[in-house]
Amino acid sequence: MLKDYKKKKNKLISFESLDLNFFDDFTNFLFNRPNPKHPDTVGLKDDTVNKYISVFKTFLEWAAEREYHENFAYRKFSSPKTRKHEIVTLTNEEIDELIKLDLSNESRLERVRDIFLFAYYTGQRWSDIDNFNQNDLKKDSESGEYYWQFRVVKTKKIITIPFVGRIKPAIDILQKYNFSLPKITAQKFNDYLKEVGAKAKLNRRVRIKRYSGSKGIIIEKVLCDFMSSHMARRTC
Q: Are 77 and 28 in contact (CB under 8 A)?
């Protein structure tokens, strides 16, 4: 982004040049550049711009601590505020369509559907689903019920997920794969999940609004095209 800004603006970027005017201009540049995810709109979303500025300021702090510069103007600049997102979730009926979908002849998609349902039942983040270890699976000596006890990747806290009640179907998924969830990259998972959603005919129209600075961006497409690993936790 900085290289693109430098080229478009024909400006020198150095530690010394990073004043508040630069941050105002750079932020405005991000809010007005083409959006690669939504070619028909202009401007990166608030949360994306916030992330870029926050990471940049973290780097500048790191560099200052190592005495690469003595310009602390960046500390006065506030990253753009983000708004709460409209989230997209599945209905109970749509979950049922995923459950009953016959994918026995398409193991690639069947594995993705099962991992999604496991995440839906347990309500955990993709990072923890991807990090699942069968050694974290325990069995209660009295009830005979399984539970999943692990350290959360994001918060580092230890939590326990009992496979009882509405979560119980998750243990069936684990047993199906001999207590070892299939491994797949997040990008491929999201791509294949959209295929699964299309096969399950999850095609209701969904319309949400995002923001790029003061500009509203309307995103409208069929439900299956919104599907990603995050949707499982949100739906739960």
A: no
